[in-house]
Every structure is written in structure tokens, then in C-alpha cells.
Amino acid sequence: MVARKPKVDITGNPQPPIGHQPLPERIRINSTVILKILGKIHETSITGADIQDESESAVIIRPFKSLVIYEDRLRALHKLLVDRFHVNIRTAALSSSRAVGGGSQAARASGGGTRSADERPPEPLTLASLYDNLVYSPTGLVHLQCLMEFIDTTLKARIDHLRSPGCKKVAFSDLWLLFKPGEFVIDQRERQCYRVISVTSAKHQATNPFEQYRNLTRFEDEETPVRVFCVYVDFDGKRIGPVPKLFTITRFEEEKNATDLEVYPIHLSDTADLRQKLIDRGKLFLEVAAIKHMHYTGPTIDARDEVDSQVVVDFEETFTVEEHIKQRWRPDLQRDISMPLILKEKKNTGSCNWLCCVNENIFDDQFADERRNKEFRDSLYPPAWTQSKLPSVTIFPRDLKETTTEENAVTDEELMIMSYRVFGFVLRSRKWAKLDLTYLRPVQTPQLGDENDKEDTTGTGKKKRKKSAFEQLVIPPKHKDMVMSVIAQHFRDKSRDKESGATYSNQVDLVRGKGKGLILLLHGAPGVGKTSTAECVAELFQKPLFQITCGDLGTTAAAVDATLERNFALANKWDCILLLDEADVFLARRNTKDYVRNGLVAVFLRILEYYAGVLFLTTNRIGDFDEAFTSRVHISLHYPALDEQGTWQVFKINLERMSERFAERGRTLDVDTAEIAVFANKYFLQNPNARWNGRQIRNACSTALALAEYEAQGSKHDAVVRPDAVITLNQSHFETVAESYLKFIEYVRRIFSTYPDDKASEDKLRA
Questions:
Q1: Which of 23, 229, 419, 483 could pair covalently with 62 via S-S, beta carbons 3.0-4.6 A apart?
Q2: How far apart are CA 1 and CA 56, in angstroms?
Q3: Please, which pLDDT band fits residue 39 given cuts at 50, 70 and 90?
Q4: How distant, in Å, are the alpha carbons of 156, 729, 750 from that of 143?
Q5: What is the mean pLDDT of the chain?
Q6: Three-state SS for 521?
Q7: Between residues 131 and 288, which one has the greater pLDDT?
Q8: How many other CB atoms are found less than 10 A from the CB of residue 21?
Q9: C-beta neighbour count of 126 within 10 angstroms
């Protein structure tokens, strides 16, 4: 048995596999049988001449749109003839060659002159209409067999290759075949997936190359690009629906990488499980589309700001911001994407009059564009007999709540083309932003447990739960109980009212709308846990923490009024824990001379009265407060300075957290806990006027760790870290930090002739 030699071209090089070769530029059909078949299917003459005139022929130019459109009908007729005539095809071909003047052949040809065909899509083929002596015969079978061989071995093979993952390069003439209505395509960065609604390409029209260079402007006007009309699904705050996007691909020479196109089919992507990832992302889009509290870690889309913060996704509120209205952030949903597409372009209705088409009958198959496009668009509509079934969101918008019903649930195909972008409010920076769903994650849910719970393994091998931030908070235990009880009751009442539909069942004031909120005032020295209490409560109750400062509110009464109203309304809508840090700026005591301050305080008093959510006010200048605020605060808690036990507890928490971080990175941190405990106790007793608060202890631990790691890395400043280096953190590192801090405190004492805490007491800011 002799192995077959691979086929080679005229240069001796191996021919590419079937389907990898570019399509022939055109085919000429000389067969009267084939012309008659195509004419019957298309319901008009292909050549424009009397069909009995056997001297007529027709030329079809790639990408052979009519053959793609008519393939099913041609196959149906071919099967009918095969089933009817059991003859030797070769014998039939020889006996009929003189009668019909040859079979179909694919050849490169030259010529011109185009006869337009009816642009309306033809009615379904009735095979009985083809029953005549010429077509319904063994000869008809032989000639049709030639055409089917071209379709199978050349045209369909090329289409199969273009739609396979192995396709790497495409020619401009392949684009009509590559982009099919209903195809899913993705942009070059693989962020947004689209669905192709329609594809249009102008008919062949060559240009005199000399004329092209003499009149470049005219040549550009007559350029014949491929237009791929796509949609993706977005949300405008009320409805979810299609947003159109037109991609225009200008003519290019030779073949180019398919992934270099502005969009390309997703089956050509190298990303594993891309389809499932798009579906999962679409589900997340629907989940957060209304209002959702999430965590975002990554760059924003427009500003490219790095964000590591909790966010609130809220499309509707985003689009009410005046700046966003001007920038047209709201997506423009198309009412009915299936309506005829009106492209603002000059239609190319002329004929090719260059040498390649002189005296040729070029079959005008532009009708295939609209027919193929219409068939797909019609498939997106529900059957006429259904009443409650809505059209696909790919072509028609609908209310978001309608996507939750079983009958109108969003399909996987619709999920794939959901927008990759959502709009949200970044709580840390207090800015609106366009957010990428890739970087959006659920907020971690803390759980309460026993005081002895730690994140380690027990003798049973079971891993214990990590303590929540609220449990680790070093504040008086009674403060924890009081804060927990009043906030839990507030949210219980609010939830009960929401479920029952009541609007004022939780009313406690004589005047309707007043006193429905919960205001907590936390006061004490800096760094004792006031702000941390609000942050930990928000985490514990799984609520967004909306933190505002005086710098966010403005300096005039009118500006403060408008900003406070807006922020308080958002906090109440999103069910936030609202934190006004360093509130003494706007809550300071009024006087008869400062009318600006009096106006600010009056505005604040009024808004506090009607706020219905949870508000934390923190200050370390309680002595400067206006007395009118006293009656508007539900709970006032004094945070004392850390005692000896509390100081070591904060030290211990910070040291444990550092050890956990190093363990997660696979590195070794050796903490001499006993030595550090001795240092903490000694420092507390020997420096009564320079004791560290919680924030200072955290900073001291970070600085001491940096000193220890610098030593472990050989006292080098290289960016490369030796992961095997053992870091030893001991008392000496903290003594270095303490020495620097004590010098600073002594310097401050010399300036004011007293220590900072004594100065605050003398100024009657706090006891």
C-alpha cells in the first residue's frame, strides 16, 4: 500500500487543507439547468434573458450570498432527484453534455454589467414548480450534483473553517460569512460581548487604480465596508433592553488575524470557558441592577482610579446627578431593534465597470442581506398565539421586574450580552463611578461567636471561626451591648414596617415623620475606637457605611442644606450606617455674632430631626457642642482612654493580624510576645502623659515590623524580597519607635508648656 502524496500548488508548495484556502473570486454558471433552478428559487431570471437561450451564462461573486441563502432549498431538490433517479451519474453526464453545453465550473473571469434582482425575499420554494423535462431528469441531477459539490467542498468547507476555533486569519471577502446574524462577538479587550443583529456588505465594484490615486477623496466616498450591526443589553434605571452598536470594517488587503478585528466571534477567543464566564457575569449584572451593596477592588472604567472600597450599585440615582446627565451616562435603549435599520450612507447602486466585469451578467444577490437579517430578527419574537410572553430583551426593552417571572426569564443567550459595566457610588471616596463587573465581589458576611474563638485548629482538627471586627473592638463591654441592642431594634422595626407596608407604625413623636431615626454620639480622646465602632457596626449588620465629613458639605448654609438632604436621602434609601466624623465643625456652639455658623447649625438641627436612619456622630471636642444637640441625640457614649489591660489587648490583636498576613503569604514571622508584653506594660506605667491610643499602637506595630523586616533582608533597600527570610519582631524594635514618639511629645510640651490631654482639658474641650 502506497501512501498518497500531499497535493501541491503550481509552485510545488503543499496546498492548505480544505476550507483553509480562500474562496474563488467568482464562479461562472453555464448550465441552463442550474440557471433555471436558481431562477425558479429566486422567482426571477438569473441572467435576465430568455432561459432557452443556452448561450447566456451568469457570474456569482464571492461570498456567494445567494448560494448560502438557498442552500436548504437546493439540498431539498437534490435529495428529491437522488431519490427519484437511480442512474449512473457519469453516464447521464456524457449523454447530456451536448444538450446543455457543459456543467457548472468555478473559474476566475472578467466582465461587467449587473442585472438587479428583486430585493424582496422570495416565497418558500414549491418543488412541484420545478417539475419539467429539463430539471426533473437525470440530467438535472448531474448538473445539480456539480453545484452541490462546489458548495460542500469549497463554500461550506470555508464556512466551517471560519466558524471553528482553529480559524486564525480571515480575508475581507470572508467577513459576510464570518459574521452571521445571531452570532456572539466580543471586543478586542474581551470586555463587552454583543449579538449580531444584521450584517450588510456592498456589492462588488472595482475601481480603476489610476483613477483611485488621482481622486482619493472620491475613492474613499465609494469605499464599500462591511457593517456589522450589534446590540448589547443594558439597564437605564427602570428598564432592561438593547443598546445598538454599529461596527464598520473597512476593506483590507490579504488576510489578517481575526482577533485584530474590532469585534470577532467568541469561538475564536483563546479564553477558556468564555461563554460560561459571560453567562455568570450576566447573572451578576441582573443581581446588582436595582440596588446592591458590594465590594469593589480594581480600577474604575473611565477615570482609572484604583478603588478598594465598598460600593452601592444604583443606576437610577446615578442618572439623576446633573453632571452625569450632561455626560449622557444613561444608556439609550432602542425601542424596537427589529425595525428596518436606516443607515445614513449613500447606497452603492452602480455597476462595476472595470475590466473584471465588462460584458458579464453579474448576479446581484444583495437581497440576501436583508433576508438573512430578517429571519434572525423574526426568531426573537414569541409565537403569535402567546399573550404574556414578551419579545427577547435582545430586541425589545422590558421592566426589570418582568425578568423575574418564569415565562419571561432571561435566557443564557441574553445573559451573555449583558453590559460589563455598572454604575455605583464608591463609599470611601464618596464619588460616583463606572464600575467593571469583573472587580465586583459580595461583601464578606461576619458571624458572631464565643470570645475564645480563634482562627486556628483545635484538637479535633476542625477550624474555628474567625472573630468579627466588632468582637475584637476594645471598648467598654456595656457600650457594645447598648450599641448592639438599639441598632438591632431599629432595623427590626424598620423591617417589620416594610413587610407590613406601614409608613408610620414606628412613629414615636407627636409630629408625623419626626424622631424615626437613631442618632448616637460617641465622644472621647482621639484613637479610642469611636470611628471604628461605626465601621464595625456596619460590617456586623451588613450595611453600607456612608461616611461624610465637613469637607463634603460646603461652607454656606444653602450648600450644606442641599448636600445634607441629598446624602441623608441616599443613606436612608440604601439602608446605610451614616457616619459624620469630627462632627464638632457643624455642631459647635452658636453665638450672636457669627451668623454663618448659626445658619449651619440651624440647618443641621432641622435635618437631624427628620432623618429616619442610623447616624453616628463622633467628636473629641464635646465641650464645643451646642446644647440644642443634646436633646436630639438618642445615646451619648463616652470613650475613655485605654487602660493597661486594654492597651495590651490592642497590642495583641495587631500582632495576631500581622502573623496571619505573613502565614497567608507563606512567610515566617517570629513574634516575641513575652518581650513585647513586658515593653507594653512598662511603657504604659512609665509614661502617663504619653500613653498610646489604639491608632498609635497600630502605627507602632507597623513601624516596628518594618524595622524587623529591614534587618531580616540584610539592611538592604532592594525591591526583591527574600521569601525565606525569617523576621523576628521583639522588644527592641518597639523601643526604637517609642523613643522617637517620646521626643515628639516632649517637643509639643515645650511649645504649649503642657501635655496634649491637659491642653484639651484647659480649653474645656473634654475632661
A1: 23
A2: 47
A3: confident
A4: 18, 89, 109
A5: 81
A6: strand
A7: 288
A8: 14
A9: 9
Q: pTM score, two decimals?
A: 0.81
If we measure between CA atoms, which residue out of 748, 724, 642, 731 comes closest to residue 688? 642
- Cβ proximity of 561 and 299 under 8 Å: no
Query: What's the alpha-carbon Rg for the chain, to the nearest Å?
Result: 38
Task: List phi, psi (to 5°) of 671.
Answer: -100, 120
CA distances from 344 to 246, 365, 367, 558, 699 (A): 12, 22, 19, 48, 63
Q: What is the DSSP letter of 608?
A: H
Is residue 35 a contact partner of residue 46, using CB atoms and an 8 Å limit?
Answer: yes
Task: Please give the Cα distance from 163 to 572 (Å, whole number).
Answer: 52
Given a contact cutoff of 8 angstroms between Cβ atoms, the answer to whether 312 and 423 are in contact is: no
CA distances from 95 to 79, 83, 99, 103, 139 (A): 22, 20, 8, 12, 8
Distance of CA 446 to the CA centre of its chain: 27
What are the tens digits of pLDDT across the range 78-112? 888 888 886 545 454 444 443 333 333 433 333 33
Q: Which grid cell is 538?
A: 456596619
Q: What CA–CA distances, in Å, run from 490 to 245, 396, 487, 600, 646?
A: 48, 42, 5, 28, 30
The strand pairing partners of 131, in sequence order, are none
What single-letter DSSP state applies at residue 123? P
Could you tell me the three cell numbers for 116?
Answer: 438587479
Structural contact between residues 441 and 257, judged by C-beta atoms closer than 8 angstroms: no
Give the chain's domains with CATH numbers. 26-162 (no CATH), 171-276+333-338+380-416 (no CATH), 469-503+513-639 (3.40.50.300), 644-762 (no CATH)
Give me 279's grid cell: 453567562
Look at the block and give the residue holding cell 431615626: 517
Confidence band, pLDDT 50/70/90 cuts, at residue 685: very high
Residue where the block lists cell 523586616 = 709
pLDDT average, residue stretch 183-192: 94
Show the cell assigned to 24. 474563488
DSSP code string of 51-111: TT-TT--EEEETT-HHHHHTHHHHHHHHHHHHHH--S-HHHHHHHHHHHHT---B------
HSE value, Cβ hemisphere, 13 Å, CA-based, for 619? 21
pLDDT tens column, 492-525: 888 887 776 655 555 555 455 566 789 999 999 8
Closest by Cα among 536, 549, 547 to 428: 547
